[in-house]
């Protein structure tokens, strides 16, 4: 069968050209805007409006300008704290939930599973007003707690971890139990260390999602010093002016953590995205 | 005798063990619920409770001020729902977004995935990494970059169009009523297209090659193979992507609308989710926002239910 394919491949080199042409086009469309963002951010004030593809007199002045225009450091650290705490707690809650679903058979398990799974059908805009009222009531507006606490569980993470736990061999669990491991010890000493890789890749997705989140910070924060970079960038965009170089520098700064993670771990990220679907 | 004694001793210790196990079982009965507690409390408080509250608020008139009283108005909000300003436009635009995203979420990715099947592994990984990139970008960052690229006078897109087509004036992508909604749809689609392509490619690699080989031996043409074998085998994935893109097209476009056009020019880009937002946090008509939220939530719920039924029906393929 392989030989058939290979000989077909040689014969149809025209079709292989078309394949690559299609994919090169798609790749170009996907990557060019990001290239253009970085290229513009490095251009001098005079060069920004020229359409030269390469920044000829590369400079970092746009970055210093963007850094001064908004409380960039504060917002970056806010984003970092929110994204990291949120990711860790979401991982914890979903590890516990996933374990409960795979370890025991209990009454109502499918109902509870359904309740968690169905949350993806609830759009943010449908529940935003009561949640806004609740956060205001706690006095958590303009407070990192208000950003983090409503997002302590990710249904996506629960479902993904449930699948990972299900794939863990039952015989190994039995063996650990015969060695006298408690349920709690079994989870943290046997299962979690063995599923480190899947837990980590789910964690990366959670981090990216938290970092990119924009609706919620938009609603519950008013001062930039208390907000995340996404909201800061939005303010930067609507303040307008013609500071395109600085805007692209700010955009690059806010995207940098995610881009760096992607550069290092793209294969895991793509795999778990494709496996996990959207949202 | 001694034999018998040993036997009774054994059963005695056995029943003791059994009762201990029973106690443990009874304790163990609560265990799964304890492990689920954090997730359940959080989801209950931040998703299901607000959902119920939205249903509740849809029967009241309120302006979001904690000090002002809520006035019960019964079904009033629902009765006037479709007479509300901009509702018709928003509904129509929602249809445009939903249909407009389909080429990016379904048609082009499907074509590319089928056309580029069995490409060498190394090349595949490079392409995958590149075309997936938009998916991980933040919507606000994406808006920012496209705002620059599609700027009427200084954006590179209009400069490019000017050198090719020499139009009388540059296209105002976000401020021209005719163009704005298509610009937003395009950006929504741009972010999705690589992801959908990868989903379909993954589904293609999952297809059992023997079907295709058997058809090839029977001298089926490439078109026949695609139409009668590949597409039916891909149908669960096609259905899944159709469902996602129908249910979420409007939600995905929300951030681009909010950052780039705020629903304008003259409501040309608003959609139902953006309408909920403006009712809720700009005109502070909480009753209208909640009533609309209830109607759309139920509508999309019915749609999702239908899709899931269909998926179940189709899942007999390729098992």
Strand segment tally of chain A: 0
Which value, in Å, is the CA radius of gyration of chain B?
28 Å
Percent helix of chain A, as a range, is over 70%
Q: Helix segment count of chain B?
A: 11
List SSEs of chain A in N-to-C order.
Answer: HHHHHHHHHHHHHH
The CATH superfamily of chain B turns out to be: MetI-like
Find the structural class of chain A using helix and strand composition: mainly alpha
Based on CA atoms alone, the radius of gyration of chain A comes out at 24 Å
Instruction: Label the overall shape of chain B.
Output: flat
Report how far the terminal alpha carbons of chain B are from each other. Answer: 62 Å
Named CATH architecture of chain B: Orthogonal Bundle
Strand content of chain A: under 5%
Percent range for β-strand residues of chain B:
under 5%
Helix content of chain B: over 70%
Q: Please mark out the parts of chain A with pLDDT under 50 across 5 or more consecutive residues, or reply none.
A: none
What is the third-level CATH name, the topology of chain B? MetI-like fold
Structure keywords:
heterodimer; A: 279 residues; mainly alpha; globular; B: 319 residues; MetI-like fold; flat; transmembrane (chain B); MetI-like (chain B)
Description:
The complex is a heterodimer of chains A (279) and B (319). Chain A has 279 residues and is an all-alpha fold. Chain A has 14 helices and no strands. The model of chain A has no long low-confidence stretch (mean pLDDT 88). Chain B has one domain (75-314): MetI-like fold (Orthogonal Bundle), CATH 1.10.3720.10. Chain B has helices at residues 2-57, 76-79, 87-115, 121-136, 139-149, 156-165, 177-206, 209-217, 222-261, 272-281, 286-314, and strands spanning 60-61, 71-72. In chain B, helix 1 crosses helix 11 (286-314). Chain B has 319 residues and is an all-alpha fold. The chains are: A mainly alpha (279), B mainly alpha (319). The interface between A and B is large, with 96 and 93 residues. Chain B: Pfam families: BPD_transp_1. Chain B: The chain crosses the membrane at residues 29-48, 90-114, 126-149, 179-204, 225-249, 284-307. Chain B: One of its GO terms (cellular component) is plasma membrane. Chain B: It is a multi-pass membrane protein. Chain B: This is Sugar ABC transporter permease.
């Amino acid at each position: 069968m392989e030989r058939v394919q290979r000989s077909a491949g040689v014969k149809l080199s025209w079709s292989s050209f078309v394949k690559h042409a299609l994919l090169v086009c798609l790749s170009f469309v996907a990557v060019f805007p990001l290239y253009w963002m970085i290229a513009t951010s490095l251009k001098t004030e005079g060069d920004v409006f020229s359409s030269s593809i390469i920044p000829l007199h590369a400079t970092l002045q746009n970055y210093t300008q963007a850094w001064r225009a908004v409380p960039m450091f504060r917002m970056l650290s806010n984003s970092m704290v929110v994204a990291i705490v949120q990711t860790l707690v979401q991982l914890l809650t979903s590890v516990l939930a996933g374990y409960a679903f795979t370890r025991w058979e209990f009454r109502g398990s499918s109902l509870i599973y359904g309740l968690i799974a169905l949350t993806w059908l609830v759009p943010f805009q449908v529940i935003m007003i009561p949640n806004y009222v609740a956060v205001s009531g706690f006095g958590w507006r303009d407070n990192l707690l208000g950003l983090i606490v409503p997002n302590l569980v990710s249904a996506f993470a629960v479902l993904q971890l449930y699948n990972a736990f299900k794939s863990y061999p039952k015989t190994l669990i039995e063996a650990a139990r015969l060695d006298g491991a408690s349920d709690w010890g079994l989870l943290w000493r046997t299962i979690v260390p063995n599923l480190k890789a899947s837990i980590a890749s789910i964690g990366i997705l959670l981090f990216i999602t938290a970092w990119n989140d924009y609706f919620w910070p938009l609603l519950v924060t008013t001062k930039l010093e208390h907000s995340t970079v996404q909201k800061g960038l939005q303010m930067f965009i609507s303040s307008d002016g013609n500071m395109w170089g600085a805007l692209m520098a700010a955009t690059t700064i806010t995207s940098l953590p995610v881009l760096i993670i992607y550069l290092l771990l793209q294969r895991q990220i793509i795999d778990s995205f494709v496996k996990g679907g959207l949202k | 005798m001694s034999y018998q004694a040993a036997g009774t001793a054994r059963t005695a210790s056995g029943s003791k063990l059994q009762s201990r196990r029973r106690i443990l079982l009874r304790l163990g009965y609560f265990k799964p619920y304890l492990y689920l507690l954090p997730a359940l409390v959080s989801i209950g408080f931040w998703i299901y409770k607000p959902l119920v509250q939205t249903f509740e608020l849809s029967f009241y008139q309120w302006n979001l001020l904690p000090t002002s009283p809520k006035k019960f108005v019964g079904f009033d909000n629902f009765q006037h729902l479709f007479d509300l300003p901009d509702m018709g436009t928003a509904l129509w635009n929602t249809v445009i977004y939903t249909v407009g995203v389909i080429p990016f979420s379904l048609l082009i990715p499907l074509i590319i995935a089928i056309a580029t099947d069995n490409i060498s592994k190394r090349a595949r990984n490079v392409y995958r990494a590149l075309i997936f990139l938009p998916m991980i970008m933040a919507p606000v960052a994406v808006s920012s970059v496209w705002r620059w690229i599609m700027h009427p006078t200084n954006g590179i897109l209009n400069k490019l169009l000017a050198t090719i087509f020499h139009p009388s004036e540059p296209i105002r992508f976000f401020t021209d009523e005719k163009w704005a909604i298509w610009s937003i749809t395009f950006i929504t689609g741009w972010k999705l297209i690589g992801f959908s392509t990868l989903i379909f490619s993954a589904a293609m690699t999952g297809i059992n090659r023997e079907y295709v080989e058997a058809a090839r031996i029977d001298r089926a043409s490439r078109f026949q193979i695609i139409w009668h074998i590949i597409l039916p085998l891909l149908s669960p994935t096609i259905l899944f992507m159709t469902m996602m893109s129908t249910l979420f097209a409007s939600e995905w476009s929300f951030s681009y609308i909010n950052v780039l056009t705020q629903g304008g020019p003259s409501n040309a880009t608003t959609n139902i989710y953006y309408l909920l937002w403006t009712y809720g946090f700009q005109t502070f008509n909480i009753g209208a926002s909640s009533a609309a939220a209830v109607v759309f939530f139920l509508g999309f719920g019915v749609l999702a239910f239908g899709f899931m039924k269909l998926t179940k029906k189709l899942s007999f393929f390729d098992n």
